[in-house]
Structures are given as C-alpha cells and as structure tokens.
Write a structure and sequence with these properties.
With 349 residues, the protein is of the alpha/beta class. It has 2 domains: 140 residues, NAD(P)-binding Rossmann-like Domain (Rossmann fold, 3-Layer(aba) Sandwich); 168 residues, 2-Layer Sandwich (Dihydrodipicolinate Reductase, domain 2), CATH 3.30.360.10. The chain contains 10 helices and 17 strands. The strands form 3 sheets. A 9-stranded mixed sheet has the order 16-15-14-13-7-12-11-8-17. Strand 14 and strand 15 form a beta hairpin. Helix 1 crosses helix 9, helix 5 runs antiparallel to helix 10 and helix 8 crosses helix 10.
C-alpha cells in the first residue's frame, strides 16, 4: 500500500468535509477521491463538480460496497457514525470519521470492537483542533513539574451571545442526531484529557435557556439538550476539574479561558474576542502570568488527513484521535448526561 494510489469514498460532504477533509486528502501524494454520497444526489453532484470527483453515489452503502475504494471519509452527523464505520471496516476499508465519535459510549465501544477485529485497517476519529498549537508545550510543562501538583483545572468556554430563540434549529439541538454530545463539551474535554488525563467522577447541572425553537416546517420543538452547562469532578490522576460551557452568555469576558492551577505554578489558555489564543504561565514568586513563547518545533497543527494517509501506508500511527481515546470521551459524555438526569455524581472508574 505504501507505493499504491489510495482511493477514497466520501460519505457526507458538509462544512468540515468540504473545507478540510476533501482538500486535505487531495493534497496527499497518490490519493484520489473516487466517489461522494451526500444527503441528496444534487448536493453530492455540486461537491463532485467543485472537486472533480468522478462519481456521485446514490447512497452510502454504494460507496462502502465499491470494490475500487480503499478508504472511507465519513462526514455525517453523529447518528450515522457507528453504522457507517462498522460497515466500512467489515468491508475491509480504512475509516476517517468526523467527530464526535457516536451517539453514545455503547456505539463507541461497538466501533472500537470492530476496529480491533480488523487491526490492519486504520480507524481514526477527527480530533479536537482548538489547542493543537499548545498541547505539546502544556503537556511538557506539566510533566516537567512547572505547576507542581495539580490542584484544579478551571475551564470556561463561551460561544455565541445572549439567548436567541429565533436562531435556527440545528442538528446539535436534536438528540436523535447528536446523542449525548452537548455543544462543544466533548471537543474541549478531549483536549483537556491530553493535558491532565480523564475524569474519575462527574457531577453536572444544566439548563435549556432557550426552551424551544421552531423548525423548518414551523413546528415548535422543545430543546432537550442544554445550552448552558456546568460540570465538576475529580481527575483520575489527582486534582479536580471544573468546566463551564455555554452558548447563551452575553458579553462573556472571553470565549476561551482555561486555567490549570498547581501547587507551584499556573497555566492559562486565553482567547478573548478576535484575539488569537495565547498561553500564559507563572510560578510561585513571579509577579504574575506572562506569555509563553511556543517553540515552532513543538507547535502542533492540523494534519488529520496527512496522518490518516500516512497510517494507511504504514508510515506513522494514529495519535489524533484513535478509537480508544474517542471511547473515553464518549463514556464521559454519557456520564454527563446521566448526572444531568439523575442529579447524582457518576463514577467513571
């Protein structure tokens, strides 16, 4: 395979797929996208015309059953990730699947089990991208003892603005399409796991500040997924985590404000307004936090499609993100949902 052309089929050609995955795959050496299937044949044809893809499939099964295709890029909403991934792996095809992994942890485990039965096939979930430039630096600073012992990680993620009942209903507000994935919580938890490991316990409270929206048919739809959420709990490796994520906070001081507090030092990842994301740090005895200059050699970047193709060719292993890691954030997402419903703390151990 290392010298052969890799032939890819695309299932689901929405924003991320057309902006990132298709161009990223076509940028790799000896890669050809053979076919695309989208919600409608007409929308699939538009994507095929834009990227010179030779075939438009009538449905996703046609792509998976195509003997000329080596690998599948799945860009659908989470409700189809498990059936498509499992079918593709069982058909002998490598899989790059859009995040979030699945509707819930049970589906995630089913995907992981099938991938383990086909160890020669590459199975990758699109990773959380927001912190790639800083991840290695943060991990190395914590590992080298910069913060001492972890006390708490305090993360506040605010998207959008004041509540807007007139905003359009999207798949993210539909539990049938998104499952236990709530707003961007899974993306950020995946990033935080890179730095401090997984949580051991989860307690969550949340609310749908916008209680209902109107769909395309004029039907009033009750919002069952929170648009404001607070999560606290203990970390497996010691210390605590407090995580607030919201899409309804007007004039929030920062869209991203993540502080990692330790016994000897503090790290802060900050993005306010249109400013670029910045890492700051300070230790006991310093006057305060100061910007951290990221070594260019340690600055990560988006290379999902390159990693996928290289893994197929045996040149590297999947790091961002393998199915085992993705299952961990799905188990955590399930725990958040269970705690929201029960009002109780949920153990992940």
């Amino acid at each position: 395979m290392s010298q052969d052309k890799i032939r890819i089929g695309v299932i689901g050609a929405g924003g991320n797929t057309t902006k990132l995955h298709i161009p990223g795959l076509l940028a790799q050496r000896d890669v050809e996208i053979m076919s695309v299937a989208n919600l409608t044949t007409a929308s699939g044809q538009r994507v095929a015309d834009e990227f010179d893809i030779p075939r438009v499939a009538a449905d996703w099964q046609e792509i998976i059953e195509d003997p000329d295709i080596d690998a599948i890029c799945i860009g659908t909403w989470p409700y189809m990730h498990a059936p498509m991934t499992i079918a593709a792996l069982e058909a002998g095809k490598h899989v790059l699947c859009e995040a979030r992994m699945a509707l819930n942890a049970q589906q995630g485990h089913e995907m992981l089990d099938v991938s383990r039965r086909h160890p020669r096939l590459v199975a990758q979930i699109v990773p959380a991208p927001h912190t790639l430039a800083f991840d290695r630096t943060i991990m190395e600073m914590i590992g080298a003892g910069y913060i001492g012992e972890l006390i708490t990680l305090d993360a506040r993620i605010s998207m959008a603005d004041f509540p807007n009942p007139a905003s359009p209903l999207t798949w993210r507000q539909d539990r049938d399409l998104s499952g236990n994935n709530i707003m961007a919580m899974g993306i950020w938890y995946e990033a935080m796991m890179r730095w401090v490991g997984p949580m051991a316990t989860v307690s969550a409270i949340g609310q749908a500040v916008v209680p209902h929206r109107v769909d395309d048919t004029g039907r009033r739809v009750v919002m069952a997924i929170p648009d404001h959420l607070d999560i606290i709990g203990n970390l497996e490796g010691g210390g605590q985590l407090r995580f607030s994520v919201s899409t309804v906070l007007g004039h929030a001081p920062a869209g991203v404000d993540v502080c990692i507090f330790g016994t000897e030092g503090t790290l802060r990842l900050l993005q306010a307004g249109l400013d670029p994301m910045t890492l700051l740090a300070g230790q006991r005895g310093d006057d305060g936090l100061a910007p951290v200059e990221i070594d260019p050699a340690k600055r990560g970047a988006w290379r999902v499609e390159e990693e996928f193709i290289n893994a197929i060719r045996g040149l590297e292993s999947i790091t961002h993100t393998d199915f085992t890691t993705a299952v961990k954030y799905m188990e955590w997402s399930d725990a958040v949902t269970e705690s929201l419903r029960s009002g109780q703390s949920v153990s992940l151990l």
